[in-house]
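Q: Here's a chain of 245 amino acids. Please give me its 3D structure as tokens.
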Amino acid sequence: MLAIATTACSAEKVRLGLPTPATEQGKRILTLWQGSWVAALAVGALVWGLILWAVLFHRKRSDQLPPQVRYNLPIEMLYTVVPFIIVAVLFYFTARDETYLDKLTKNPKPGDVTIVNVTGFQWSWQFDYPQYKTTPIVGQPVSPDAANKPMFEIPVGKRVRFHLVSKDVIHSFWVPSFIFKRDIIPGAKSGQDFELTPTKTGTYEGRCAELCGVDHSRMLFQVKVVPQAEFDQFISSHKASGSAQ
């Protein structure tokens, strides 16, 4: 805590291993992550303090057996109630944020919510936009340092719904900068949709985060977050030419 305080960093910069969030939902996850660390450090400081206190004040001073206390009701209540409170607080904030992350827009319309169908297969991805009836973007397995990864675009500042489908085994859709990933379960009827609101333009790397076979490491893709006008051009070009790149 002293090292963090002396750096004079803002809470946004103290990400504790997480990347800079590129979505509204990512910011919420980052806040939960930071809060969990604060709670863990507070509990750790208490436990370390009690250990040091016991070491310093209850160390052996003679061969005389110290007074034996069989029951101590206040202490027993303390170490029962305090852990319960800690777990309850963590559960509350986790459940609150999970509800927020799983919230879906009812009756989404083009312009309000962009729907992207994401299909995982051994060993690449397919992306298409059912609202706009574009030609699917179908990728091929690529080497980890390849530049020709399948790429799709989404508009900045607008909600985007991802619908996940697997053609074979369990995959996992993961964009590290979104600080969000979800497993794609073959045949699943629910839990395969989620929505994100990108807040920063740029090109972000994505990959499969579930070991799915021999070429799992080649399941790479990119998502480009662009202004609405550029996204409209992207959709129009795919409608007009039928190109998958």
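Q: Can you summarize the key feature?
A: Residues 24-57 form the longest helix (34 residues).
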